[in-house]
């Protein structure tokens, strides 16, 4: 079974250039983030004002700064590499929290319906009434900017999309013959939800998770750009964009290269998500 599934995945990737490119980008970013201490040519926190605002391919006494240095003399390549760690950690942790909450809520509300369904869907409608980014900014402003608070905020506020989609699928699945047969055989509610319904909504959940990772990376970068995300001197892509906007016309590389890294990563995740959607449908 595993070998057959692997063959199907590889065949699908060969047929989809977009999916292959997306997977290569995502895997590359993951490898670079995991092996940052080995890939990074310099210490991302080391400051040297004698090397401030040096252009790309500048050859210093301690090596070549291929993408130049920032306003504090820190190597751009090293800060982009370590910034990928921050974006991936926050997005993956936040998506894990949001997916866990949303999938469980969607399964329970879709299966039992009644008052519990009305309560959670009312909460979802209330949350959707507020613009998502403004809600995030308000919550982070109250809790304070830190990696833990950002992860918790993004995770708790991101459950709605999972809950609604899973609930809609469960409402259809609960009337299918296999659920009726399981109920006739004396299968309990817990077993029907997590052993019969969950596997049937797993494909949709995987696609949502993939696309939500890209959104979480973008939101985290936006918060850091506004000063409500990861605080200096910790390297992050949004913070690099915020630092570079002051020098946009004189030292273009400060914001350009972190922006390209952010754009390519989000593009890769979205392309992989599109491929997964086509693969499971």
**Neighbour order of strands in the largest sheet:** 1-2
Q: How would a textbook summarize the main sheet?
A: 2 strands, antiparallel
| Shape type | elongated
Give the termini distance in whole angstroms: 19 Å
Keywords:
281 residues, 12 helices, two-stranded antiparallel sheet, 2% strand, MetI-like fold, mainly alpha, 2 strands, 74% helix
Description:
The chain is mainly α. The protein has one domain (23-280): MetI-like (MetI-like fold). Helix content is 74%, strand content 2%. The protein has twelve helices and two strands; from the N terminus they run H-H-H-E-E-H-H-H-H-H-H-H-H-H. It has helices at residues 2-15, 17-34, 36-39, 76-112, 114-128, 132-143, 147-157, 159-173, 177-184, 189-226, 237-244, 253-280; strands spanning 58-60, 63-65. Strands 1-2 form a two-stranded antiparallel ribbon. The radius of gyration is 22 Å and the shape is elongated.
């Amino acid at each position: 079974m595993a070998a057959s599934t692997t063959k199907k995945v590889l065949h699908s990737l060969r047929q989809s250039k977009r999916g292959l490119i997306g997977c290569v980008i995502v895997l590359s970013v993951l490898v670079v983030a995991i092996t940052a201490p080995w890939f990074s040519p310099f210490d991302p926190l080391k400051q040297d004002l004698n090397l401030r605002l040096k252009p790309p391919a500048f050859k210093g006494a301690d090596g070549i700064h291929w993408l130049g240095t920032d306003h504090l003399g820190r190597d751009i390549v090293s800060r982009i590499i370590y910034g990928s760690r921050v974006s991936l950690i926050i997005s993956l942790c936040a998506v894990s929290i949001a997916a866990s909450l949303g999938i469980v809520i969607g399964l329970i509300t879709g299966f039992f319906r009644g008052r519990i369904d009305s309560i959670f869907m009312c909460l979802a409608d209330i949350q959707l009434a507020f613009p998502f980014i403004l809600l995030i900014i308000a919550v982070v402003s109250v809790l304070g900017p830190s990696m833990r608070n950002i992860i918790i905020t993004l995770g708790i506020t991101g459950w709605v999309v999972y809950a609604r989609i899973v609930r809609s699928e469960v409402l259809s699945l609960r009337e299918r013959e296999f659920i009726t047969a399981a109920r006739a055989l004396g299968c309990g509610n817990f077993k029907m939800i997590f052993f019969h319904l969950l596997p049937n909504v797993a494909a949709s959940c995987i696609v949502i998770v993939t696309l939500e990772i890209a959104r979480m990376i973008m939101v985290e970068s936006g918060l850091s750009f506004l000063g409500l995300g990861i605080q200096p001197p910790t390297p992050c892509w949004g913070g690099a964009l915020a630092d570079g906007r002051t020098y946009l016309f004189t030292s273009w590389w400060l914001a350009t290269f972190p922006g390209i890294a952010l754009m390519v990563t989000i593009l890769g995740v979205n392309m992989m998500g599109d491929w997964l959607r086509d693969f499971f449908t």
